[in-house]
Specification:
This protein is an alpha+beta fold. It is built from four helices and three strands, in the order αβααββα. β2 (about 55) and β3 (about 60) form a beta hairpin. The two termini are about 15 Å apart.
Protein backbone atom coordinates (compact mmCIF):
# COMPACT_ATOMS: atom_id res chain seq x y z
CA UNK A 1 0.00 0.00 0.00
CA UNK A 2 1.38 3.38 -1.01
CA UNK A 3 0.87 5.80 1.89
CA UNK A 4 2.31 8.87 0.18
CA UNK A 5 -0.29 11.59 0.30
CA UNK A 6 -0.36 14.74 -1.81
CA UNK A 7 0.15 17.80 0.36
CA UNK A 8 -2.22 20.12 -1.45
CA UNK A 9 -4.92 21.57 0.86
CA UNK A 10 -7.83 20.23 -1.21
CA UNK A 11 -6.49 16.67 -1.11
CA UNK A 12 -6.00 16.60 2.67
CA UNK A 13 -9.73 16.52 3.30
CA UNK A 14 -10.69 13.44 5.35
CA UNK A 15 -12.49 11.71 2.49
CA UNK A 16 -9.45 12.09 0.21
CA UNK A 17 -7.10 10.72 2.85
CA UNK A 18 -9.42 7.76 3.53
CA UNK A 19 -9.59 6.99 -0.19
CA UNK A 20 -5.80 7.24 -0.49
CA UNK A 21 -5.20 4.66 2.24
CA UNK A 22 -8.14 2.42 1.35
CA UNK A 23 -10.51 2.76 4.29
CA UNK A 24 -14.12 3.76 4.84
CA UNK A 25 -15.69 5.19 7.98
CA UNK A 26 -18.44 3.47 9.91
CA UNK A 27 -20.89 6.09 8.63
CA UNK A 28 -19.90 5.41 5.02
CA UNK A 29 -20.12 1.65 5.48
CA UNK A 30 -23.48 1.88 7.26
CA UNK A 31 -24.87 3.84 4.31
CA UNK A 32 -23.46 1.37 1.77
CA UNK A 33 -24.87 -1.65 3.63
CA UNK A 34 -28.20 -0.04 4.44
CA UNK A 35 -27.77 -0.45 8.21
CA UNK A 36 -27.28 2.07 11.00
CA UNK A 37 -24.00 2.93 12.68
CA UNK A 38 -25.63 1.52 15.82
CA UNK A 39 -26.00 -1.83 14.07
CA UNK A 40 -22.30 -1.76 13.15
CA UNK A 41 -21.45 -0.95 16.78
CA UNK A 42 -23.56 -3.90 17.97
CA UNK A 43 -21.83 -6.17 15.45
CA UNK A 44 -18.43 -4.98 16.71
CA UNK A 45 -19.39 -5.62 20.34
CA UNK A 46 -20.58 -9.13 19.46
CA UNK A 47 -17.57 -9.86 17.21
CA UNK A 48 -19.83 -9.99 14.16
CA UNK A 49 -19.47 -8.07 10.93
CA UNK A 50 -16.30 -7.05 9.14
CA UNK A 51 -12.95 -6.50 10.88
CA UNK A 52 -12.34 -2.88 11.85
CA UNK A 53 -9.63 -0.56 13.08
CA UNK A 54 -9.95 2.27 15.58
CA UNK A 55 -7.97 5.47 15.40
CA UNK A 56 -8.83 7.48 18.47
CA UNK A 57 -12.61 7.41 18.72
CA UNK A 58 -13.07 6.81 14.99
CA UNK A 59 -13.83 3.42 13.47
CA UNK A 60 -12.63 2.46 9.98
CA UNK A 61 -12.86 -0.57 7.72
CA UNK A 62 -10.27 -1.44 5.06
CA UNK A 63 -11.40 -2.28 1.55
CA UNK A 64 -9.48 -5.59 1.69
CA UNK A 65 -11.15 -6.64 4.95
CA UNK A 66 -14.57 -5.69 3.60
CA UNK A 67 -14.08 -7.76 0.44
CA UNK A 68 -12.92 -10.76 2.49
CA UNK A 69 -15.91 -10.39 4.82
CA UNK A 70 -18.34 -10.18 1.88
CA UNK A 71 -16.78 -13.33 0.36
CA UNK A 72 -17.10 -15.16 3.70
CA UNK A 73 -20.72 -14.09 4.08
CA UNK A 74 -21.49 -15.30 0.56
CA UNK A 75 -19.97 -18.71 1.38
CA UNK A 76 -22.08 -18.96 4.54
CA UNK A 77 -25.24 -18.15 2.58
CA UNK A 78 -24.39 -20.85 0.01
CA UNK A 79 -23.79 -23.40 2.78
CA UNK A 80 -27.09 -22.55 4.46
CA UNK A 81 -28.90 -22.79 1.13
CA UNK A 82 -27.62 -26.32 0.49
CA UNK A 83 -24.92 -25.15 -1.90
CA UNK A 84 -27.36 -23.34 -4.19
CA UNK A 85 -26.73 -19.78 -5.20
CA UNK A 86 -29.43 -17.57 -3.74
CA UNK A 87 -30.44 -14.25 -5.13
CA UNK A 88 -31.12 -11.81 -2.34
CA UNK A 89 -32.29 -8.26 -2.69
CA UNK A 90 -31.42 -7.21 0.85
CA UNK A 91 -28.60 -4.73 0.56
CA UNK A 92 -26.47 -3.22 -2.18
CA UNK A 93 -24.39 -5.06 -4.73
CA UNK A 94 -20.78 -5.16 -3.57
CA UNK A 95 -18.01 -5.45 -6.11
CA UNK A 96 -14.60 -6.57 -4.84
CA UNK A 97 -11.64 -6.79 -7.15
Amino acid sequence: MDLRLPLEPDTLKPEHVRNSIGVVSDTELAGALGVSTTTLAIWRSKKLGPPYIKLGKNVFYTYNDLCAWVDDEAKVRRIHSGGREQQTSDGPEVICR
